[in-house]
Amino acid sequence: MTPARSPAARPPGPAGLVVVGLLALGVAVVSSGAYALAGLDALAEDGAGLAAAYAVLPAFVQGALYVHIVSSSVALLVGPLQFSQRLRRRSLRTHRLLGRVYLGGVAVGAVSAVLMLPTNSAGVVGFFGFGALAVVWAVAAVRAYRSIRVGDVDSHRAWMIRTYALTFAAVTLRAWLGLLVAVQLPFAGAEPDVDAVFADAYAAVPFLCWLPNLVVAEWLVRRRGLPSYRLVPTPT
User: Fold this and answer.
1) What is the count of structural domains for the chain?
2) pLDDT over 90, % of the chain
3) Which of these, 127, 158, 170, 165, lies nearest to 224 by C-alpha position?
4) How far is Cα 211 from Cα 120, in angstroms, rounded to an integer?
5) What is the C-alpha to C-alpha distance for residues 181 and 179, in angstroms, rounded to an integer?
6) What is the C-alpha separation between 199 and 141, in angstroms, rounded?
7) What pTM, to 2 d.p., does this model score?
């Protein structure tokens, strides 16, 4: 693959950032709030999310789960602010500080995700799907950091878009889950097995929650005139 540059740069629209920020806020508050207000055992009894699967696991894995939730929520919330031109113009120092917080959240989130892989609830598909997400997420964050360290602002912006597209998998995972569950219910009979329906839906999301996000990210990168990647070399 060779980097290519689109002809004209277009800044991200504020309306889009607001929508993304609100979705990120909703997922971060619901996820972090639920696990902060109640223990895994209580959440498991209520059938909340994946609590039942993690309530029976060792304390080390449970700790990794909590670290992953907190660090990923921080990255999810801080990320949209990094794309605000107004913030960059008014306070470059704040932009840089939030950038470090964001990349730190990504780094901790990726490492904690890897620690959870052997006991993930989606089996082999989850191991490879969520594992690939953690690795690509971390690599994109490193590329974003290295780009800005050498003064390559355009590449930094491109890699930040890719990085946040992967961070946003926390949102798209839940959207895909809801859609896949809804699609199955009409065919699940008069008294559907809710656990089985959820398990079938969850088995599909380890790759589905982030691969389409990267496609959208690359489209946004090219639309904004930033360095993109093509499978074949483009003529000079």
Assistant:
1) 1
2) 51
3) 158
4) 19
5) 5
6) 31
7) 0.86
